[in-house]
Each structure stands twice: as structure tokens, then as C-alpha cells.
Design goal:
mainly alpha; 35% helix; 101 residues
Length: 101
């Protein structure tokens, strides 16, 4: 099986040259195998398990220290009780098909 996958500069006339031998396609790149893997990944993989839960961004790391990132008053403080619950996360996982329980 050839292992040279180097791409050379293509001219317009090269795209229609059917007389040249084709390179052997790797097994994992066969259309049926690609489709099988995509279906498996779509149906079975929970992104939270793969990548972990997404936390709150640290705006000071992203933009540097600024006064507008100061502590918010109670009307803008969402850290006390307003957030996604464990039950909501589990329900989402079940609805998306990531969890079967």
C-alpha cells in the first residue's frame, strides 16, 4: 500500500486525467467506514465526558484587569442559586441519547 500522500500543485488539466493510477485509500477512510464511525460518534459519545464540563470564563485572563469586571450587586449576581441543576444536566443527557438510565 503506498504511503506517499504528498499533494503536488494541480493544474486544470490534471483534474481530468483518468489514466493515472489511483492511490490506495486507507481502510479507515473508506466511505462505509467513515459513515459507520460518524454514526457511532453521533449516537454514543457524550461531549461532557469527552471534553469535561465547560466552566465560567475568567474575563480578566481573556481581556486583562478592568474596572467593569468588578463584583456585581445582588441584582446582577447569579452565583447564588441560579444555574443549571444536576437534574437538568441529567435530563439533557437522556434527551440527547447520551444517558440511557
Amino acid at each position: 500500500m503506498p504511503t506517499d500522500y504528498t499533494l503536488r500543485y494541480l493544474r486544470y488539466s490534471d483534474s481530468d486525467d483518468e489514466d493515472r493510477p489511483k492511490k490506495t485509500l486507507a481502510g479507515w477512510a473508506e466511505p462505509d467506514e467513515v459513515e459507520r464511525q460518524l454514526r457511532y460518534q453521533e449516537d454514543e459519545i457524550d461531549p461532557d465526558e469527552l471534553f469535561g464540563e465547560v466552566g465560567d470564563p475568567d474575563l480578566e485572563v481573556m481581556f486583562g484587569p478592568r474596572n467593569k469586571f468588578r463584583v456585581r450587586s445582588s441584582s446582577a449576581n447569579w452565583h447564588n442559586g441560579d444555574g443549571v441543576t444536576k437534574a437538568e444536566i441529567e435530563d439533557y443527557g437522556r434527551r440527547m441519547g447520551f444517558r440511557k438510565d
